[in-house]
Records
---
Amino acid sequence: MTRFEFLRPDLAALQAYAPQPGGHATAAIDRLDANENPYDLPAELKEKLAWHYQQVVAANRYPDGSHAPLRAAIARYVSATGLEPAIAPEQISVGNGSDELIRSLLLATCLNGRGAILVAAPTFSMYAILARTLGIPVRTVGRVEADWQIDLAAASQAIARSEPPVRAVFVVHPNSPTANALNAAEVDWLRSLPAEVLVVIDEAYYEFSGATLVGELAQRPNWLVTRTFSKAFRLAAHRVGYAIGDPDLIATLEKLRLPYNLPAMSQAAALLALEQRESLLAVVPELLAERDRLATALQDLPGLRLWPSQSNFLYARLPGAEAATYQQAMSDLKAQGTLIRATGGGLRISVGTPAENQRTVARLTAWLAARG
Ligand SMILES: *Cc1c(COP(=O)(O)O)cnc(C)c1O
């Protein structure tokens, strides 16, 4: 119920997204709940950005609303793996985080009762959250617990039956929170979807997984890939995401976004990150080695089931546990100084620095032992 007659009644049932339960954590806590890169931007790069702010940015002027230099730099980066044909700047749209792009895609496909979206749970919660704020129905299918493959038969059936029709399917490659990349059967299923269905492939963790479907975009105009600077590139504070797709689809996203959606310093930070990407991404192999060490240490803990990860986070379940137990684990670990995420019926643990990971192992081991 709401006091205000002018508000849509369906919004009263929704809750505001609370990324950090209990508010912003103190400095002393290990923040392993949001899959960010644990390493801040190096001091020299922060100094370069500070110099840019002082010498180049006119604070009284609107930022570049075309994002032209950034779109060109992203197109070069995406094509740098030797893509043929190369991705053009007209195939890139830049958003205030991938979240903005997800919302634009929902506006473009499903508004006014025109369509529903399909997701396979557990997955990134933002698709369903944003859809609900727009009154868009969400069809949810499951996954097979053994390897988290999407229940493809259920997904096909949901598409066949949905009214309004499913206009967009959202998949993450590799998925969050379960950390598995799309397998051959899943990719084949995506290929089998009709051209009237938009396929959104969220590659937020591309720099960690090395897995991408960008090479297929040329043959599949109904596919669109999103990526972000919030994870491997260490720029979560700046909110920069981008979409890669057919020029006509991208032109539609450009119509829907707010005119000055990306602050000048965020554009500058993303450009600098691409220019310095070799040094910035040099920590990726180290983080993957840390992930493997963390997985080895957690693997045999009694009462914990861990799945293989193709990204910078691990997903675990406590066999037989209920949702409240995961919340309890999260708050007990937080009280000891390690913030992880209870989500999707399990625990998602980001890979941190070696010291953070050692504390994660010690605290989780003690927690499981106390649980008995
Ligand atoms: C972290 C994450 C993103 C990044 O979102 P931004 O809005 O760009 O910060 C996108 N998709 C998934 C699946 C993620 O986990």
---
Amino acid sequence: MPINKAAYLQIKSGCDAAGVTLVAVSKLKPNEDILALYNLGQRDFGENYVQELMAKYEALPKDIRWHFIGHLQSNKVKYIAQFVHLIHGVDSEKLLVAINKEAKKNGRVIDCLLQIHIAQEATKFGMDEHELSVVIGSSGEYVNVHVCGLMGMGSFSDDDAVVTTEFKTLKELYKKAATTYGAPLTVLSMGMSGDYKIAIYQGSTMVRIGSLLFGARDPK
Ligand SMILES: *Cc1c(COP(=O)(O)O)cnc(C)c1O
């Protein structure tokens, strides 16, 4: 399926105007679709699966900034540590330790976002406020990772009020992290195809948008 060029140009200019980074979520989409967006100037792409990301990294232009936005297992960090631009879904100290180790092997400092559980659904990954404070508190020990922000996913709800409240909560934690834990955070990754406008309104600095740009995905 071709990409939706009109939607891309519109969303991209909206993000630019708001100072928000647009990550085009290309999971399960072919390289030709990624290249079509690349040729329009897009450089930030998000992927959820390690094997798929490795194959795309090999095949596609090297100036693409690859964001890992899925659930990352500690034992798979080694496959992406050499090139990944930003890891969005860090939800445990164990994973942070693994990223630090692999980053060090590659002589890199890898930027990471801590994933916070904000949605009502019990199935979504992420830390609560207490875990956040613990992990942020110890993150300074890991010199090859740079915790530069937070990431969260809103509920899959038609009720804008629910999602608004969740994004407000995340924004508050983001601000609080700077004052309470003295962590200079600069990235707040929140907002997807269904809720990115609400997210930007609530102070997101980075949105992750897939289906509006690439069309619906077939199940994996
Ligand atoms: C798939 C995915 C997205 C993009 O979802 P769309 O609804 O297609 O925009 C964003 N963030 C994460 C973490 C995802 O897994």
